[in-house]
Specification:
Layout (H helix, E strand, L loop, with lengths): L2 E3 L4 E3 L16 H17 L2 H27 L3 E3 L2 E3 L1 H26 L1 H8 L3 H5 L5 H31 L6 H32 L3 H18 L9 H6 L2 H4 L4 H7 L8 H25 L7
Antiparallel strand pairs: 1-2, 3-4
Length: 296
Amino acid sequence: MTTKSTGYETEPSGSRPGASTKPQTAPGFLYAALRVFDLSLGQMLWSRRTIFMLLVVGVPVIMALIIRFIDAMSGSTMQVNGVVMDGPAIFGMMIWMFFLRFSVPVLSIFYGTALIADEVEDKTITFLFTRPIPRGAVLVGKYLAFLMSTLIVVLPSVMIVWLLIVPMRGSLGTSFIDLVKDLLILATGFAVYGAFFAWVGARFKRPLMIALFFVFAWENAAMLFPGYMRRFTIAHYLQGLVPHAMPSDSAVSLLQSVFQEIPTLGTSIAGLAIIWAVFLWLAARIVERKEYVLEQ
């Protein structure tokens, strides 16, 4: 029995008259992104970058152990410029200094810039793009895998620090709501920094140096000087969320007084939402249109 081609599949030439064949349709954008997410999550969690991530988030845990040991041995209250520091205040400062200003941007750099760059370097990008799915869905799916893998590793570290630090002249029960807020802020930081660095990785050929310059040079300089330049940083808008998660005591007020022009909560949420949406859309659009030429 002979066969004839329909362009999508073959069917027997002797099939009954009137029988129609449905052409194969490409999956939707969201479905394709979730499929890429499912395939990429395990690869990210078992990659060498996860070891680096564990080392980064292990630093606050070690610091918390040292602080707790010193507090137990000395038996005296910790003070900064004559202001008594209790557990919740110390934890709030660690969230800002160790996590939001270091761990979140650094991990977002090494994961976000590599979402597409690693596929190009390993020469596997062609295998992904030959699938009948939108190209932008590949980036979005890998971006979602980055978010999940970083949260899986980082959030337990935050919980350990919280359990070690907050009981120092503080109460776990009264600080639990603040902990939930801190976790949401960290997740927001990963989402926004990740979207921005996904765009950097898709747009530039050597994205790592550009991303490191943005975090350690531009953001630090813009945050130190008064004026409008800080509005072009992600840290400025994250800073507007931090006071709402920190206990409102004199020690935290001392920390906040170092910075000026803290944006309001509404301004921070709107700014972060715009940055996230714009740069994730730009990253997906670049991947859709860019021609990737693999070096031999």
